[in-house]
Amino acid sequence: MRMQLSRRMRLPEAKKYVAEKLKVTPADLSDEVKMRDIRADLGIGTISSLVGGANGMAAKFKIAELLGIEISSVNKFKQKAGLFADGRK
Amino acid sequence: MQEEILTRMGDGQQVKMSAIQVKEDITAGTKDAADRGKIPELTSAEQEHLFEIVADEDRIVGVRSGEEVVLTDDVSYIRMNQDEGASGGLGIPMSPPISVLVHERAFAQDSAVLGATGFTGKHNLNQKLQEVETTHLLLTVPMLYVSGPNLLAYYKPLGPYDNPSDLFPQGKIKEARESQEEAAVVSTDDLVWLGKKMASVGVDCLNLDTVAAAGDTDFYVALKAVQRLKEEVPEMSIEMGMAAEFVMGMHGQITFNGQRLAGMYPHEQLKMAEAAGVDIFGPVVNNNSTKSFPWNISKVVTFVKHTSEVSNIPIHPNVGVGVCGVPLCPVPPIDSVTRVAKTLVQIGKADGL
Fold first, then answer.
1. What ipTM goes with this model?
2. Three-state SS for B61?
3. What is the DSSP string of B4-42?
4. What span, in angstroms and rounded, lies between the C-alpha atoms of B42 and B38?
């Protein structure tokens, strides 16, 4: 979804890109069992609740980093919290 | 093979048809689309594939592993907390932010939507912006904000501009066109204003929905707004979902990129959307509720497949009530809905729904 929105990738290309970034196969992306563990390990959010696990903004920080994309709400948060290394406001 | 195939009419009523009748309707449906859009019919192999999907004895059908697609939608929170009339709606009293979180976590939706179709007003906008900001902290999937040109709201009696539908019967064609052009300027400014506000709070994507509902000028407004927003807030993506398969010529002469917008079908609408800077395009194909489901889905996938073939951007066909093959009834039957999804993914090559 994020690669379609941010880079206009068609679905096969988007799945391949995300799979490579997460070091899984495109088929793994649709496997609920595998992805539960992978998502928890990477801190990119899980569907069912995981106490102490990343979700929401914390997960989006990791998603932006792993996929190499800009997520607008993450950037807004970083600006407000003064987290940009270059001091961007 | 069943002797009689249980399927439905376009209004959702169950009907039993012979295999020959189903195949005839599939052929008639694809011919109708090809004739209207001047596009290729489904091949014999594709028609046979579609027949197998329709005739499958299982009530619920699905795609093969690896063919899964992502979903965007237009008003996820309204589906949860309101009566949407003919479009359903659950009427559970919960706030929009909570609704989208339920949509994300309970329904495993790939995107979340705040906003409202046609909303470009300035009432309570600060409250909506704060809802977006707060929800962003808890939401993992991309957040869309839905709006649209909603040009009808700019005409009398709702708005200040003379209503073309009043002027046409009086023979005032020139005045009707001028009124639309004046309303278009203000509507475009409003959409750009709203888009910039949403970008300022980090909305991932502005979802322009039901585009061209008021005809070619309505489409023009959406395209111009996209063009300006892509210059002013390029960090925000834009999805454009259409209202119908055919752009009505309420103006008749209005153009974008030198192309007359009136009369465009999905594959032509897509090219205008691409040129404006749209990131995801949502084609719509109208249902005929008096025709069978096989006829309707065959017509739909003929348009969607061709649109996908000529597209350079992801396409998410709109599978709401009464469009793209989903029967026109408040509770869409799961047998039809899953056949629509399977058909649009496997034959239509949709990138999402």
1. 0.95
2. coil
3. EEEEEBTTS-EEEEEHHHHHHHHHHHHHHHHHHHT-PPP
4. 13
Domain B4-346 grouped into CATH 2.60.40: no
Nearest CB partner across the interface for B105, out of A47, A70, A77: A47
Q: Are B209 and B238 in contact (CB under 8 A)?
A: no
A8 touches chain B (CB under 8 A): yes
8-state DSSP, B332:
-
User: Tens digit of pLDDT for each residue in B299-344?
Assistant: 999 999 999 999 999 999 999 889 999 999 988 999 999 999 999 9
Q: How do the domains of chain B map onto residue ranges?
A: 4-346
Q: Tell me which chain A residues have a C-beta less than 8 angstroms from the C-beta of B63.
A: none
> Which residues 18-77 of A have a C-beta within 8 angstroms of B?
26-27, 29-30, 44-45, 47-49, 55-57, 59-60, 63, 70-77
Residue B248 phi/psi, 5° resolution? -70, 140
Closest CA to B66 of A63, A29, A20, A80: A29
Nearest by CB to residue B352, choosing from A11, A60, A71, is A11
